[in-house]
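Quick note —
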Amino acid sequence: MNHNALNPNALNPNALNPNALNPNALNPVALAPNRLASNAISAAVRAAITRPGELGAMSRQLLQYIVGCALTPSQSFRFSWRDERGELREEVYPGYLGLAASWAIAPLSESREQWVSACVASRANRAGISVMISSRAAHLALRHPDASEVESYPVEEGAFWGDLFATPPRLYACYKESNVESSRALSRDCAAGLAEPGGGVRECPNIHIVGSCDLACDALSAAGGHRPSCTDDRGESWPAVITTFLP
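Predicted structure written out below.
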């Protein structure tokens, strides 16, 4: 596959472990009121991302994906921390998709919270395996996938939406029923769930599966090939939805 033929604004490498969505490791609510800059984040967030050990690593991984979803490739988030041996570590997290680029200079709006949340959920992977996905949405950054991308990634996996910044986080997913086994074969199961030997499925942590996208969401748009909106298990409609496609 020629990655140069793919639109980097609509594709992202998926390697985020869904367990990193644990709000005890990094509380996204503390990020929302402030701009996303090292001198503007709250003390609670700074403590979480500079903590040595597993919890700190989990917080930094989540923040790295949040930054990648929110900022553009010309933007980045920098900070430093000290490991268990007291050695200084410098971190530079580049932006990628640009779903909330203004967060670098201004507080995050509710709409942008939801776009970042949908993006983070869509990039979650229980297995921690890097899987290239095509992300499509009504957002300008993802609205117009090019023809080669659509051809290379024709299989609709499902859709993701919600609010990672809520207390507790509310993240949702749905699946394209006819493509469930294809998704699981590629180690993607946060939309459809992990099939268990005794029957039933196990959800990814913090991502609730509401069922088939054909029932929970609007039909795919003719223009961008995305689900314009989806409904959660409370009957609430969400317009910030990211629809994912696989090879």
